[in-house]
Amino acid sequence: MKRHLLSLGLLAGLALAACKNDSTTPSVTLVFVGTVQGSSGSLSGQINLTVTGTTTSGTFKIVSPTASTHALSGTYNTGTKALAAAGDGYTFGGVYDGTSQMSGTMSGAASGTFVASKDDNSTAVAFCGSYSGSDAGAWSFTVVGTALAGSATSSGDGHVTSLGGTMSGNNITVALPGGGGNLATGTRNGNAVSGTWDNHNGSTGSWTGARCN
Predict the structure, then answer these.
(1) Beta-bridge partners for 189
(2) How does DSSP classify residue 40?
(3) CB-based burial, 104-141: b 16+ in 10 Å, e otherwise
(4) pTM of the shown model
(5) Which domains, and CATH codes, for the chain?
(6) CA 188, CA 148: separation in Å to the nearest integer?
(7) In angstroms, rounded to a whole number, what is the distance separating the alpha carbons of residues 58 and 195?
(8) From CA 153, how far away is CA 59, in angstroms rounded?
(9) For 7-53, how does the pLDDT look when each residue is reduced to its tens digit (9 = 90+)?
């Protein structure tokens, strides 16, 4: 009788362990809102990416030179934090830094780069525009809270400059890469933004743009 009860207890324990092993960890959803720059400023656009477990979906909206919207789908590696998404001939590959930003490249129908900020509360605002003066090209950035992140691409030599800074109220400040001052300052007026830039190396100009998400 005791031996029979012990056998039943062992079977129950094994069954419970099997149930625990079969349970799955709920998928974590990550939302990214960002902007896209074509090589040499050939296009400017906005990108939304949603990662659920190992699946990625989203949209890529070209703002200029010709407006169009493209659905994206793909995969996400939870170990390496690498994303791959494609749609209508556009392919995006990027890596999440694990805290606040995903960045990478665009290839296929057009080449370029993208920078996207993690948007936990659906408050991200993206802006796209152009700059002129000693140099000219396209720029774009996303603001989450007061943190600003994006890039600018020269239409001359194709150089890509990372943009980081803040938007406090309607005041915009973009830090000079590497420190030592501000690369650009400006203001927001509704959905429009504008200001001036100075690379502290003899090149100056102005910039303007509008909300693009």
Answers:
(1) 192
(2) G
(3) bebeeebebbbbbbbbeeeebbbbbbbbeeebebbbbb
(4) 0.83
(5) 29-211 (2.40.128)
(6) 13
(7) 31
(8) 22
(9) 434 334 444 444 444 444 567 899 999 999 999 888 999 999 999 99
